[in-house]
Amino acid sequence: MSSVDFDLLVPFGWNSSYADDYLPLLGADLIPARVIRMDRSECDVAAPLPTADFQSRLTAAVVRAQLPRSDSEISGLCTGDWVAIDRSRTVRALLPRRTAIVRAAVSGQPDTRATSAHQVLAANVDTVLVCAAGDGDVDLGRIERLLALAWDSGAQPVVALTKADLAQDIPLDAVRAAAPGVTVLAVSASTGVGMDVLTSLLDGTVALIGASGAGKSTLANALLGAEVFATDVVRAGDKRGRHTTVHRELRPLPGGGTLIDTPGLRSVGLWDAAEGLGRTFSDVESLSAHCRFTDCAHETEPGCAVRAAIESGDLPRRRLDSYRKLSRENDWLAARTDARARAERTKVWKQINKEQRRMYKERGNRG
Question: Binding of Zn(2+): at which residues (predicted)?
């Protein structure tokens, strides 16, 4: 292992914190690597593999690695994960995740158990760049939903209203009101408007999320300084985009840090996102603390600070409605998840009891 230069992983986000996580594996002849793209039972990883031409490389080699079929933890890998691979290029260990963007899994199946599943979109992300096209009607509710996802991941969100060069009037004030504590910028990847400020805000590993047609891939290419990701025009009729990005893929940024481009999200279900909702709607929750009753529903109760703020115009009614909608959805999914866990525990205990009864019966027959 002494021939491996771990500093070559720095362009992919390697630092002393991940080195500490890898330390227990140092004697196992395992090599640290970062997942840059998933492909079913295989993944592309950046790894400092010692090869004949390794000394001439300026960065880690990108190689194809295999996933072991029997390890459920490793089978759940995603782009951005740090792993350890062996000399046969098989992933053998998953290093602890610092952050993870998680949504409720999308499923068209009628099986209610599917509502309890979740999907990790990206791991070890430091900045979540929420992208929305600024040249049309900006969906504030969708931005709030994505912000709840971003805050809950543990990363710092930033909102970018793209295509500023095509917009007549970008609703910056409305978006900023829907994103307390978050920097909101109008940018144009084509003309460079706002790009210098945006670049200065990005830290560590940056993940782009947003709907199809939001300009994520165009923005990613501008940040990377090269045409790395495919782009396409949106439909003129409904302004909806096509899925030009079909994989979540990680690339080093030229000024340091890394970037993960993701496919457009048409469905964004919240997954255990109570903390993210609290950060996204910090204005509503702050007002709620001043209501006369701690269980105030913000309807007809006297001394309701939330309703007073709505009546005075300090809080848009839409904010409260959105907060309620997303909170109900999150609570419902949490209840379904708890119900599934209880059902699975009950099934296990029934199987144990059945096996015990069988053993007692066999003992009785032998006696």
Answer: 291, 296, 298, 304
Residue 192 marked ligand-binding = no
Which two tokens mark 35?
Answer: 């997942």
Report whether 296 belongs to an annotated binding site.
yes
Residue 217 assigned as binding residue: yes
Distance, in Å, from the CA atom of 64 to the CA atom of 180, rounded to the nearest integer, reads 42
Is 78 labeled as ligand-binding? Answer: no
C-alpha to C-alpha distance for 319 and 272, rounded to whole angstroms: 20
Say whether 24 sits in a helix, a strand or coil: helix
**Which whole-number Å values give the CA distances from 346 to 10, 340, 350, in the listed order?**
47, 10, 6
Q: What is the CATH number of domain 100-261?
A: 3.40.50.300
Residue of 258, 365, 266, 273 whose CA lies nearest to 327: 273
Check the annotation: does 354 bind a ligand: no
Stated as kind and residue range, the H or E segment containing 161 is strand 156-162
Q: Does 164 appear as a known binding residue?
A: yes
Tell me whether residue 205 is annotated as binding.
no
Note the CATH number of domain 6-94. Answer: 2.40.50.140
Report domain extents, the chain. Answer: 6-94, 100-261
- State pLDDT tens for residues 223-265: 999 888 876 655 445 445 454 556 889 999 999 999 999 988 8
